[in-house]
Structures are given as C-alpha cells and as structure tokens.
Design a protein that fits this description.
This protein is mainly alpha-helical. 64% of the residues lie in helices and 0% in strands.
Length: 98
C-alpha cells in the first residue's frame, strides 16, 4: 500500500510553511489569497478578517466538493470577508463619530 506523504514537513523534517498551498489549482490559490488584500486597505482589522478568509478558503479548497460547488463556496467566502470588513469599519466609524 502506498504511503501518503506528510504535507506538513519538508525533506529535513522541519515544518513546511507553504504546505497548505501546495497541490492547489491556480484559481484556488487566487481565491485563497484575495481576502488578504484587505490587509493593504484595512491594516490590522483588514489583516485579521483577510486571514480568516484565507484559512477558510484553504480549508474549502481541500474539501471533496465538485469544482462548481467549491468555486461558489470560495467566492462566497471572498464576498463575505469584504462585506464583513466594511461592516466592521462602518460600525467603528459610527461609534467614533457618534
């Protein structure tokens, strides 16, 4: 029986920080990274929300869904992260401006 390699370690036995990105299709990589663009616009708040979207999409990319369902789910996460960011920023703005 063939052994499945451990994607979390490199050849030297050290943790591989890029293991979650290996083996994904190009569109899965793009949809996983797009939420992190919030970090450029929103600083720490955008970074936290973007990282949440990144990890959610990486998780969805590894699920055994069909391609159309996976694409729609990952697009939904991207839209939800941007809407969530604008909601949080809007609430903070309203709280500070009174």
């Amino acid at each position: 029986m063939q052994q499945i390699p451990d994607l979390g370690k490199n050849s030297l036995g050290k943790p591989d920080p890029w293991a979650k990105f290996r083996g994904l299709a190009w569109w899965q990589l793009v949809l996983s990274i797009v939420p992190m663009l919030l970090m450029l616009v929103g600083g720490a708040i955008g970074g936290v929300i973007g990282a949440t979207g990144l990890f959610a999409n990486l998780s969805l990319a590894r699920k055994p869904f069909g391609t159309p369902a996976k694409l729609l789910a990952m697009l939904g996460v991207v839209v939800a992260t941007y809407l969530g960011y604008f909601l949080v920023v809007g609430l903070i703005h309203n709280l500070l401006k009174g």
